Amino acid sequence: MIKIDVTSLSEFQQPVSFYSPGISDRPASVVDHCAHTENHLFAMDYRMIETPDFTIHDITTSGKKALKMEEYTNECIPLSLNCALKGSFACKCAHFGKGKDNIWQESNLNAYSVSSMSGYMVCEAGSEIKQFAISFSEPFSRKLVAMMPNHLERMWERYDNNCNSRLFDCNRECTPEIQSTICQLCRIKTDGECARLLLESKVLELLAFALAPKRENVVACPLSAADREKIMEARNILLQDVCHPPSLSKLAIQAGTNDFKLKHGFRELFDNTVYGILTKQRMNQACNCLHNTSLPVADIALLTGFEHQSSFTKAFQRILGMTPQEYRNNG
Fold first, then answer.
1. Residues spanned by the domain of 283
2. pTM of the entire structure?
3. How many CB atoms lie within 10 A of CB 189?
4. Which residues does 45 contact at the CB level (< 8 Å), separation at least 6?
């Protein structure tokens, strides 16, 4: 077992923290950072999206050797939501769990309030750990406490008294709704003028799912990280050639999964069916052709995978509420 101090590693191109970097000096808008570091001990991909109210952390760590990663911070973190999306690991945090190791399994989550922290994380050689976290600013945390006092007021009282606390004594499960919302959140483009609003809406949705009462007697079927990767690959394959899409069974085989997981995965990750995603892409391409070219509608129908213009027109009108020609005229 090799022991390293994460806080002082000079190899990092970006300040990296297991819990979260400091929340001071927040940007006025949205800033999206990406960093990669690799050495003989481990490789790490790190993405941090900063806004005035919260910071999103998406971290993937691949251990080349068995590691004990130690860390300490004096930064105050009023509220942080942490999720383990892939891999299992053990960690110990001062002031939590009476000094016992906290075992994080794949698809675990918890919320923390931290005035200072020291601890460590243990990961095995050859393991890949994917973590996701959101740390909130103090003003925004106060708003959240006012909105959800039954959930957060006790944590906030301990934070005001310079005490660390966590929301759940035992880690909760990342439900399919939470995993799907995280995927949607990570796909939001951060360079548009609506980026901050879109990010905040998804962050609040994610927090609402995380704080919802635990459902009893419900059989959960969360997608594993490997399943999510296969569903994303299936989507890429599907959209490579919208004119000649594979059948559901062939698409499942090409992506390394089965029909059930393929259909379930599309619902969970994209809130749509396989056919719905295909049709949406066909309509996007059709709109682009209608807006930017003078091609006849019949040709655009063929280019977007429809054998007959009438079928294309019906599908277009059902989804966009107007015929292709009306869309072009309104362009």
1. 276-330
2. 0.58
3. 10
4. 34, 35, 36, 59, 60
